[in-house]
Amino acid sequence: MTPDALDEEAREAARRWRLVLGRYAGDRLPVAAADTALDGALGYLYDREYTARGHRHGGAGARGGQGRRGRGGTEASVVQGLSWLESARSLFPRETFERMQVDAVDRYGLTELLADPATAESLEPSRELATALLRVRGALDERTAAGLRAVVRRVVDDVVRRLRPRFVTALDGRRDRSRRAPHGASRDFDPRATVRANLSRYDPQTRRLLVTDVRFSSRRRRALTWDVVLLVDQSGSMAASVLYSAVCAGILAGLPGVQVRLVLFDTSVVELTHLAHDPVAVLMTAQLGGGTDIARAMRYAEQEVRNPRRTVVALVSDFEEGGSVSQLLASVRRLAGAGVTLLGLAALDEAAEPAYDRGTARRLAESGMEIAALTPERFAEWLGEVLR
């Protein structure tokens, strides 16, 4: 490697470290002129890290060098929320910008971004942002709650557009197959339609009708209704799973042949079936956080089962049981013994990787519950298979 190449590599490394370290590197690593906008956008958000650690802003060490930014962090700034969002969106790749949005809300509590309708509208809707907002929902006032609802609705609408066709395909296929019959049944014979179809072959002399086209009435077999009970863990780590569960419940609530029951739980149980058709209302009602008592939720479901062999209970949880594991397993065994179809849907982390207590999951499986880490798309396919 030539000296010039080494120098260029060193300069690029220094540039990157300057952007990473921010204002405290200003004396030794001045920001390049071309990076002024990048440095400002990063500083607006990540200078708050220094404030949280008790450092003061201002002086020669301020981000941008030479006192370009005299103030920052949670104090007043010349860069306001909307202009910062617009600037960051234009400066960074989409994936990076979405990560910064989540940090702004989840890490630094910049919920004031939701107070202004224009600013809330400028946020890039994503599952990560929606789940971050849901985690801080309890700390929002009325002004910011309206912005949160707007963002969550955009995310929900996007997820519904993606998932609904999968559920419709999975469940409609099941109904179409049940109606297909290769031959007409005698009880479905339609004499009037048969006569009309063969009138051209009537012989007036013999007063006989030659029947070559037999018609049957289109009697569709009445599909039996299934009860699908969604038990959703709303403990603090379950934000993403709660979002997808609310969307799945909303889709199922609009499909024929399925009666959906939506139940959220932590250490208590809340029936939200009356809101199941509106995922946004469910998410704005959910109270993320607290402990977990899966046994209580399973006992609740057990009491609500009307037709065991036409009932699916889907438990969405990380299986971190804070209640009685023995009571949980006993309830699962009773439900399985009665003929209820049981599925335990393991929680997925931010990278869509399974994140759950494998010990409890194994014991649930041994007691009669099928355990799986399914994406919502795969859940739709599984449900279609079960309800055939």
Quick recap of the structure?
By secondary structure, this protein is of the alpha/beta class. The protein is 48% helix and 10% strand. β7, α14 and β8 form a beta-alpha-beta unit.
Distance between the termini: 66 Å
User: How much helical structure, as a percent, in the residues?
Assistant: 40-55%
| Largest β sheet strand count, sense and barrel closure | 6 strands, mixed
CATH C-level category of the largest domain: Alpha Beta
The percent range for strand residues is 5-15%
CATH superfamily of the largest domain: von Willebrand factor, type A domain
Which strand order do you get reading across the main beta sheet?
Answer: 5-4-3-6-7-8
Number of contiguous helices: 15
Give the integer mean of the pLDDT values: 78
The sequence of SSEs as H and E is HHHHHHHHHEEEHEEHHEHEHEH
Can you tell me the overall shape?
extended
CATH topology of the largest domain: Rossmann fold
* Number of domain units: 3
